[in-house]
Amino acid sequence: MGRSASKDKRPVYLNLFKIHLPIAAVVSLAHRLSGLLMFLAMPFIVYLLDLSVQSSAGFDRVIAMLQQPLLLAVQILLVWALAHHLFAGIRFLLIDADLGVDRQAANYSAWLVIALSVLTTVIVSLGACLT
């Protein structure tokens, strides 16, 4: 039959900011977020590509747009999204092949994904700033 309200131990209000997620869960959530960011950026990227190939004036306009501070921040965010999605995707493929499934290896690979994605973002961002 039905449970009484006093015996039900499920939380009524679930505050996600108070829950301590394991690092593997953080990487999984970030993988989904990075995929969503890349998907949402696609129409704007296609627009910029279209504008840049129309004429040399269009190309110059795209270059000027991409040098604005807000769009520079968006570019850095998209570089992180691409790097994280790539490295986390490789991690998940390895886990699907039963490599790195145990807890210690999963935690190590999750930290490796975070480190590689941040390192890649910093290298690409610094490289873009130097040119």
What does this structure look like?
It is a single chain. The chain has 131 residues and is mainly α. It has a single domain, classed as Fumarate reductase/succinate dehydrogenase, transmembrane subunit (3 helical TM bundles of succinate and fumarate reductases, Up-down Bundle). 76% of the residues lie in helices and 0% in strands. It is built from four helices and no strands. The termini are far apart.
Largest sheet: none
Q: Which CATH class?
A: Mainly Alpha
Shape: elongated
- Low-pLDDT residue spans: none
Quick one: how many beta strands? 0
Going by CATH, the homologous superfamily would be Fumarate reductase/succinate dehydrogenase, transmembrane subunit
| Cα separation of the termini | 70 Å
Average pLDDT level: 91
How much helicity do the residues have?
A: over 70%
Secondary structure elements and their pairing?
Blueprint: H1 23-54, H2 56-66, H3 69-96, H4 103-130
Helix pairs in contact: 1-2, 1-3, 1-4, 3-4
Keywords:
131 residues, mainly alpha, 3 helical TM bundles of succinate and fumarate reductases
Q: Care to give the gist of this entry?
A:
By secondary structure, the chain is mainly alpha-helical.
